[in-house]
Fold RND family efflux transporter MFP subunit.
Amino acid sequence: MKKHSYLLLAFVPVILFSCGKKETSEDTLVKGESIPVQILSIQPGSFSTEISASGTFSTKNETVLAFKVGGIISKMNVQEGDQVRKGQVLATLDRTEVEAGFNQAKLAFEKAHRDFTRVGNLYRDSVATLEQYQNSKTALDISGQQLKAAEFNLSYAEIRATQNGFVLRKFANPGQLVNSGAPVLQINGAGQGNWVLQVSVNDFNWSLISTGDSASIQLDNLGKEISGKVIRKSPASDPVTGAYWIEISPDNSSELNLASGMFAKAKIFPKNPQTGWNIPYEALLDAQGNEGYVFVTADGKTAKKVKIKLGKLSTQTVEVLEGLEGYSQLISSGSAYLSDGSTITIKN
């Protein structure tokens, strides 16, 4: 009886091992086993791509104004937000120092003119030499140029509006000492109604957009879309962000209630149609940015993983712009179980 018990115990692990092995083989795919998939016939076509972007409004003629010479500001005639007219005096310097420089230059010119007249008379009487006469003429010319420079500096001891518009920013106040060329005021040409919306796009979308393309602009303060068109493209990317800007001019911008820096969204409609493929969203794998992967088959037996460039994505379809050239059969279902070179079985 004891001998039979030992034999029974010896067979228990064998039975357990056999049961476990059988269970595992049913739950895993045997290496090289054909994977069932569904395929979709594809061919290139044309479609229009809608490009979404956002940005801010400006007049593109915003100007920073400064004094030509340094000094102390005596008057500031405007505040931020004030409307200005072209030629209006906006700020002035204390003119004491500038006027003194102008008066000195004027007196020097008058003396040089008297010297030139006197030496000229002496030269004609053969008392002064030709060299003395020429030196007096040079001194007169130099003093004349110095007088012009002093007169120019005197005229720029005040700041005048260069265009009709509004004061955007004020950088200084009366009594403040400013250097030559230091920003004092910033104005724009909003009074002329030439507003533009500048939006940022990536390099791929930049290549799709052309000057003259139609666009729609969404403004929160209007609660509606307004039409516009692309008027300019940046010739180079922003050195900080790497993005490219597009300028959109809204229709009838003079009738809009806009302010510099106001945020807006835009949709741009490129007039040149794109050539590519529309594929099911489920067929797309490992999408990142404007790139992703899909599986295709050339012989109906083997799967091949290819890299594609993406266009517009939706919840049901994906626009493919590059990568499917030369392929006509896309694996639309079962891609999650595939790897490059997997054996497949096409099912209906």
About this structure: The chain is about 25% helix and 35% strand. The radius of gyration is 40 Å. Residues 44 and 277 are 5 Å apart (CA to CA).
